[in-house]
Structure formats: structure tokens, C-alpha cells
Amino acid sequence: MESNGSIHIHRTQGNRLRQPKKFSKQNVDLAETPLFFPEGYEKIFLAIYFITLPYIAGLLFLFFYVAEGSIDLFLSLNEEQAFMLTWAIGYEIIAALTLMWIMKMAIGFANESRKSTIKKQFRRP
Fold this sequence. Notes:
mainly alpha; disordered N terminus
């Protein structure tokens, strides 16, 4: 009976070492996102963010990069462009930034999990 208990204790001690988790296996919680999602209205606000954020990003790109900060040139560009074109430009910018952010988090997570497995246990010579 004691040997089974000691085996059980030995197994739990072995599990105390932090096993590296996979980045894709992490839980996603919308409460931890930087965007504001009031409880009960998550889908409505997600749709609002999906429409407005890329459009605003597209407008900022057109103003600062294409029109080079000139209000007159920006207004002339804005008259000729459709809403969908500006939204698509902003969507691509936000998608690229999001992918870079995800890659940065994955690299940081890989470095963190690698550091935890490198630690060697102390052994007497």
C-alpha cells in the first residue's frame, strides 16, 4: 500500500515540472481583449468594430500616406473612392498588424516555454 502511495507521490512530483504548452492550445477570453465588449452585446459591438475600425484605418492610411497630410488632396481622393475600397484598405492594414502581433506573441511564448525546460535540476557530484 505504501509503495503505491510513494509511486503516486513520485508521479505528482514529476508533473510539478512545468510542461510547455502549445500556443494554439491557449484559451481565448473576450474579456481580456483591448476592445470594449459590454456583457450581452458582444455580437453587436463586434459587428460595429468590424465595420468602423478598418474604415478608420483606411481613412488614416489615405490621409497620411497617399495624400501626404494634404487636406485638399485627401478630400479630392475621398470624393472618388467608395466606402468599400477605403474599408478594404483598412482591413488589410489591420490584418497585417494583427498577424505581426500574433507572430510576436508566438515567438515570445516559444522563448518562454524553452526557458522553463532548460532549467536543470541540481545534482550532487
